[in-house]
Amino acid sequence: AAPALSDPKDILAKTVLSLKDVKTLQIKGDLTGTVQVPNSGALDLKGTTASLDADIAAKTIHVTVSAPSFLGTTAEAILIDKVAYYKLTGPLAGMVGADATGKFKKVDVPEASGDPGQIASDPNKAIDEFKAQLDKLPTPPTKAADEKCGDQDCYHIVLKVTDKDLAAMSSSAPDSTMPVTVTIDVWSRKNDLRPAKLAIGIDAGAQGSGTLTFTITYDQAVSISAPPADQIAP
After folding, report:
1. What is the mean pLDDT of the chain?
2. pTM of the model
3. Low-confidence ranges of the chain (pLDDT < 70)
4. Three-state DSSP class for residue 220
5. CA angle 8, 13, 14 (to 5 degrees)
6. What distance in Å separates the CA atoms of residue 184 and residue 37, rounded to the nearest whole number?
7. How many CB atoms lie within 10 A of CB 214?
């Protein structure tokens, strides 16, 4: 068994490092909460779901989103190397230029900037830089009690950031007109430090609150391909 860890910053840094050898990802997300809509009252976010399948080596990603509370909106996107296909159904489709017939639109994706391979090529530098960012947080991450994630033993790390914290960290942060608190919970598997679950909670007071929870599995078989030609808009 790996030695037990107690430093929350160390656990988070090693959690990031654990992703360097991932071959495939499967993520399931659920959104709960309410948000205040002008002239309409509270909108219940329950039932909003998302999924992501990714094959890292093949550079393919498949994302789906279902948001029944947002006028029955659904979205789907497929990335095959440098080509993306997307479609949006529901009343909101016309607002973002989606195809009115519900077919996929095809667009080219520009080459990503930066160095996405830094974690693999220089892991010690990547960890040092990540810890340096954590040191800038006005409120450092804390370690909660260990928990079970399915059949896995997990560390539980909690980060809390407010609108005032963001303003203190960066002079370019936008001025907030209302108090906002963001809470991020990370559950990392003890055996390999890979994150098993991630929860992002936002509390905006009278404007609403919600939590987006992700469960993550790794290195399972995934099959991602471009849509059939008759499902792609001209």
Report:
1. 86
2. 0.85
3. 1-2, 92-98, 100, 111-124, 169-177
4. coil
5. 100
6. 25
7. 17
